[in-house]
Structures are given as structure tokens and as C-alpha cells.
Design a protein that fits this description.
This protein is α+β, with helices and mostly antiparallel strands. The chain folds into two domains: 3-46; 53-131, Immunoglobulins (Immunoglobulin-like). It is built from two helices and seven strands. The strands form two sheets. Strands 4-3-6-7 form a four-stranded antiparallel beta sheet, with no helix packed on it. The two termini are 24 Å apart.
Length: 150
Amino acid sequence: MERSFLVVLAIGVAVAAGLALVSPFFSLIALIIVGVVLMVIWIGSDTRDLPDVQVDFSEDGHAVIVENKGNAPAQRVHVSLVPIGLEADVPSLAPDEAHPVPLAGQVAEAKAIITYQNGSGQTFRRTMVISVLHSSEDLFRPAFALFRWK
């Protein structure tokens, strides 16, 4: 376990034991607060070091925009567009960084296969259909990667 997790747990149990001498209700309230803080620490550690590389066309369809929407740098990014036959490599993308890849002509729709790694070497792969005519934004996607949601 992480050290911060164990420190919060030890302090919380000590405070709850001290409050048990005053009132058992105060002790239960302290245990609930400690549980909430431990859940926050757990969720925070679960969402660390997750790059999220997405691909979309530019407004005019003459370029592909490769963007890292995650919270960690993406390394060894490889993008392949299937019907076009375009393959592009980006050495690394910092969080919230975008890299345009120019196309030979205007394209309306394509299937993108994206492969990338995080800082610890874990490989991610994503396949998505991108189009100039339709938005590829997922409306049900959480604002940050919650419980390894991809």
C-alpha cells in the first residue's frame, strides 16, 4: 500500500479511538470521514500516469490532429489511418499537447488505430472511427479516467 494511505489510516484510527472516549457517535463520524479520505486517495492513485491519446480531423480535413487528453506524457505514439494508408509516428506528447499530421488530400472519414505507451512502459491501443462530418466526442466519457475507464 502507499505510505500516505497507511498514514491516514493510522491517524484516523487513533483519532476515532480518542473520540470513542468522548462519544461513540463522534468516533463513528471520524471513521466515516477517514473512509472518505481513503477513497479519495485510492481514486487519485488509480488515475495516475494515464495518457489518453485521441485522433481527430482538422476543420478542413487536410490534417489529422493527434492529441493527448490524459494526465501523463504519451511516448512512442503510432497512428495508422486504414483506408488512406497513412502511418505517422510521434516521439512523445505531453498532457494537453496536440500534434498535427498533414494529409496529401482532403479526407472525409477514416479508421484510426493508435498505439502508445506511458512513462512506465505500459502499452495502450485504441481504434476509433473519425469523420469530418460527425463528432467523435463521447458524451458519456467522464472528465478524468475513473477506475481505469478508457
